[in-house]
Design a protein that fits this description.
single chain, 80 residues, 0% strand
Length: 80
């Protein structure tokens, strides 16, 4: 089975929130440098640095997160 399209879902995300998630994950989990992650996911280096700052700040404020702080639940998800 050819999984190319499914692989692209993760490596070339189209939705801005998913792009942020994958870029941050690439830095924190995969060990990619900020510059490489920014280039890979279409962000400027300073934008990547700001996203990392906001993510660290969000996690530090809670000590944990229930999910990525940049994903907001929809009204439909809240009703379930």
């Amino acid at each position: 089975m050819d999984d190319t399209a499914f692989r692209h879902y993760f490596t070339q995300p189209a939705h801005p929130s998913q792009r942020r998630y994958e870029a941050l994950r690439a830095v924190f989990v995969d060990g990619l440098s900020r510059k490489l992650a920014a280039a890979a996911f279409g962000f400027q280096h300073r934008t990547m640095r700001q996203m990392m700052y906001e993510f660290r700040r969000s996690v530090a404020a809670d000590g944990k997160t229930a999910g990525p702080p940049f994903f907001k639940p929809t009204n439909e998800a809240v009703r379930l």
